[in-house]
Write a structure and sequence with these properties.
Length: 43
């Protein structure tokens, strides 16, 4: 039987999770800054 291909490639997965986490944190900080400033134009 052939070797089973893992569903998650951790060498690349950890990098992708890290990038995703950084993007999410950046978006949250931007939203908080807009809410606190009160000058954010919202449609």
């Amino acid at each position: 039987m052939k070797t089973i291909i893992p569903l998650v490639d951790w060498s690349n997965g950890i990098i992708m999770i890290g990038v995703f986490a950084v993007v999410v944190v950046a978006l949250v900080l931007v939203m908080l800054s807009l809410m606190n400033s009160g000058k954010g134009k919202q449609s």
